Fold this protein.
Amino acid sequence: SRRIGGGTRFVIRLPAVPAPQRLRRISYLSEATQPLSPEALSQLLRVARARNEAAGLSGVLMHSRSRFFQVLEGPHDALHATMERIYRDRRHKNVELILDVEVEHPGYQGWALQFTRIDDDLIERIRHGGPSALEDILPARR
């Protein structure tokens, strides 16, 4: 059969571009299985910052004696892998997920992992206040 108008037909195949992953923000509380020396804490931060940067994650870690509170954000797959590692890490116990939400804009971009010390009262406020307490305590960096 003939096509009206004739001409040449071209087919251009472009490589598939993966859809961008949705940005997620999680936070959790955990307890250290043993007290951390300043040197051990420094090493933990060095390794975590390098891993976060490589995985495209950002966030903040807070330490209160033997307890931790952390907020992480980034692509779902990277967060999932990091949380799996945290759950398996023998330096942590009683990991309690506080928040797991999808966000449109990063709040901690550029922070591979900020660190600060906090007190136990603030840890309890986070634990019992849930996500609403997080907004008061840790407003997203602008």
Notes: DSSP finds three helices and five strands in the chain. The chain has a mean pLDDT of 82. The first strand starts at residue 23 and ends at 32. The radius of gyration is 22 Å.
